[in-house]
Amino acid sequence: MFRAWLPPLTCLVAGALLCAAVAGCASTERRLSYIGTPQEPEEGDRPNQLELEEPDSDFAPDAVAISSQSPRTMGDRSHDGVWDLTLAEALRMTLENNKIARTRNEYLSPGNPILGNSEAVTSVYDPAIRETGVLFGNRGVEAALSSFDPVFSSNLGVGNSETIQNNALTSGGISPGGTLFQQQGQFAASLTKNFAYGAQAAVTQNWNYNQSNQQFQLFPSLYTGNLQFSYQQPLWAGAGTEFTRIAGPVNPNVQAIAGVNQGVVIARINTDIALVDFEQQVRNMVFDAETLYWDLYQAYRNYDSLVEARESALKTWRTVQAKSRTGLVGGGRAEEAQAREQYFEARARAETALGGPGSRGGDQGIYGIELQLRRICGLPANDGRIIRPVDEPGLSRFEPDWHSSLAVAFTKRPELRKQRWVVKSYELQLRAARSLANPQLNLASFYQLNGFGNNLFGPNGPASENGSQLQSAYRTQFQGDQTAWQVGMQFSVPLGLRSALSQVRHQELRLAKAMTVMATQEQEVSLELAGAFQSVEYWYQNTETNYNRREAALDNLEAVQADYDLDRKSLDLLLQAQNRLAIAEVSYYRSVTELNKSLCELQYRQGTLLEYNNIYLAEGAWAPEAQQDLMRRSFARAYAFEAPRIDPVHTEPEAFARPAGSGPGMNIEVIPLPASLPGAEVGPAPRQLPNQRFEQLPELPPELPPAGEPVGPQGLGASPADPVELPEEPVTVSGEDLPGNRVRR
Predict the structure, then answer these.
(1) Sequence-ordered list of residues with C-beta below 8 angstroms from that of 242, at least 6 positions apart, any chain
(2) CB distance 383 to 691 below 8 Å
(3) How do 179-194 and 151-164 pair as beta strands?
(4) What's the pLDDT tens digit per position in 95-122?
(5) Are the C-beta atoms of 584 and 543 separated by less than 8 Å?
(6) Crossing angle, helix 264-326 and helix 333-355, to 10 degrees?
(7) At a CB cut-off of 8 Å and minimum separation 6, what does 440 contact?
(8) What residue segments make up the domains of the chain, in order of their start?
(9) What CATH number was assigned to the domain covering residues 91-124+276-381+390-439+497-615+655-668?
(10) Pairwise CA distance, residues 423 & 691, whole Å
(11) What is the pLDDT of residues 501-517, one digit of tens each?
């Protein structure tokens, strides 16, 4: 018999080897033939992977961006209207016009995230995006709560089978060679629910249908099934309400070693962290808007002082030129060149104070700082008006209490509040990880009602007939005569628990790092607040000193000018006095501005900047559907009852949050410090700062002549040997000169 089928098998193997050899020698490129005449391919059909393309979209450019007029420049002769802007209006526009957070340092920066990394920028949508997250490790509260939603599942299948039978005994009475005909159907439906304390309950209905031509059967077709109630409860690893709130329900498919950050509590903490991140960016944007406002105020004051210095230098140049014409002492060539150089130096300073660009680095003038303020406020580059601050800086002495400010900073700083949320999250995750570092012991039970019948529904037949009481499968099932139940324990433990213990150690290290970071952050906050205190005191003292310096420089200029008119002082001393007065005025207004900026920084370092400016973050109005859902849930909770004390599976979790403003910083013990050492008086006591308000800022900045415009008959390129005639009119041939703004003339 073996020899009978060996030759055919040998031929089959040889043929297979021959086909494989032929296929291996053949080329892998297949030649295809097509019907018809080929056409020239279109341009779009040619592959070009290096060609840059844009998406097919209908996005229109932003209205604010395209509505801007040409930017304001030094060579622009047009007169713009004045926009008297208060600080409150600037902050309001900053919050209303920006849905994407902007900061001052990002402007013209190569690493500006708004242009280079748009996914990393902070926006008003971020808290909602975080709240609606569904991915693993980034789930929002709703996604975490969805783990407790009841899950309904069902399946239905039908089939047919026809097979020839070989044995009458195993085929159910069908003769050998006969065909067994079978029609089958399966239906299953289940409803599964996870509970907050870790248990899982399920209700399952199963039905199987079978019809065949087998002999020796009560019914040729019948329905069998069951209604099963199952309940599982973890008793050791992953047990309890606290674990489920932190890590979510345990998934038995991963042997109880799952992530411990998928629960509702962790999702809520992550949402709170996202809110703190948003608050930080809003605070930074408000801080930049306020500092830019005061910088623009300082730019106006500087320009006014430098314009007066320029006019004084021009007047001196004319005086020297007049002496040169009449041959008086002090009208020589060297004196004239010195006076001319002093004028052009003053003119260059005034040009810088007016048109210094807003680029990174270099001196910035009115135009540059105003452009940056417009950016922070969400305004176009130029709308036909030039912004002029109308709020005057304060000059009052501010002496905050160190210990109170430190306590407020530890409570209000969003960075510390965020880190406290991080520490709390890691503490909770560590508890869940320690719960999983135990053997898995589960209670498993079910109760089952079995059903059997000729039909799925229908009445029973006469009692005299065989099987008459088994006509309805549902009736048989709900009679409850045939039941099944089981109660037992399921136990499993990985020997050594290395994975679970590694997870515990990992969470311990993360918690230790987070607590160390929080301690370091508190030190940083303390040091930053100390620097803000020093800055406030320094700039107040510096403002007082520069005020007296300016008064002395003004007195010196008046005295030197009088002596110079009587030929008792040289031109050098007069020019030096004019230059010192200009520098003293610029320094004084800079000190005034920096004093107010330091007060703003103090509120920033305390974490009270938004509160100080009456800015509060609040949730938007709820939709009517949300209000109705809230009322429905509140009505349902009104009928809740307390769980009995003997309930073995109910545990009341502890609170993990406290009301805002009741942080640990409010409990700081104030330690009295020794009195400071007395300081020695050096020189006479300086005059105090004036109480009167500053004069109003100028309406329009004057326009300077272009760089190539001559200032005399020979122009700027005249030879030093040639006499240079000064113009009869001031150099600013167009525009209006700024009025004086000094407190004292």
Answers:
(1) 431, 432, 651, 653, 654
(2) no
(3) antiparallel
(4) 999 999 998 888 877 878 888 888 888 8
(5) no
(6) 160
(7) 234, 236, 237, 238, 255, 256, 490, 491, 492, 493
(8) 91-124+276-381+390-439+497-615+655-668
(9) 1.20.1600.10
(10) 50
(11) 999 999 999 999 999 99
